[in-house]
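Dear colleagues,

As part of the handover before I leave the project, I'm documenting each prediction I ran so the next person doesn't have to rerun anything. This entry is a single chain, and its sequence is reproduced below.
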Amino acid sequence: MRKETFEFLEQLVTTASPSGFEAPIQEVCKAYVAPYVDEVYKDVHGNQYAVRNPEGALRVMLAGHVDEIGLMINNIDDKGYLSFASIGGIDTAVLDAQRVTVHGARGPVAGVIGRTAIHLTDAKDRDKAIKMHDLWIDIGAKDKKDAEKVVAVGDPVTVDAGLVQLRDGKVAARAFDDRVGALVIIETMRLLAKRKLDCAVYCVTTVQEEIGLRGAVTSSYGCHPHVGVAVDVNHASDYPSCEPKRQGDLKINAGPIIERGPNINPIVERGLVKTAKDKKIPHQIAAAPRGTGTDANAIQLSRGGVAAGLVSIPNRYMHSSVEVVGLKDVENASKLLAEWIGQLKADTSFIP
């Protein structure tokens, strides 16, 4: 991976932006993508559009959501401890003993998630699943008044975890779901920058996916595409306890995943597969027998219907602070999309 691209990836996964608070990450995306497109703008929802050849008769939408799961302060007690609720689908089991950042109006505040020590827990309760209301955030405040000097009810919270390079071109970080998808679509625009296109391309870094695909709904109306491809993550099955016969045989560094199923337009799927084969781009196929729960679902159902596709990056340990992906898969996903878009014609039909 190019040094500049890797540095951008590191910025993406270390810039905190939970659902509903995406403005900081959109600034990071804008700074990187702006040289490669004709215009960059945002809508009232916070979705950001980076557009090439906006006058093109065929409108192509690429979507990668930039929001991440997080927490929100919902109470400050008399002793200055913070209670919280989840933003998006968080497994309470991965929160215990994490370092966190509370994003207050006056700036970031460091904290830790605490719970009753196992030594002080009744033996009968030690094997029980921890509940979110049994956890709290400790920012070291003397009392409620002291805490309220720097934090407030409604402030978002993110786990404090950076990017770590592992072996074999793998990396671990929080928020690869779906900052890695945002990276792929933005890198696609870089690869297309010097190519003559026969279509308009809207690269949309969408918001609020983790709380209901909300940004993809509004941005699909915003650019009214004929065809849209979402880039997200899918569960790799190449680690202990994951069963390929249930999830599919999906491996990190074996190529981006092209999804098949009722959420996916068959012409889009076949075109992506043909492009991958023609250009000798490693790829994998995954079955998606229902709505995918990704931006592709919202794109497909927009207006009178959009030809939707879904390309996924294999990901281990999803919705944790140590998600693992392979850099080769990221690079190959961008190459695949750039080559596929490059051969689209203004009169391409996606009617099955």
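The chain is about 25% helix and 25% strand. The mean pLDDT is 96.

All the best with the project,
I.
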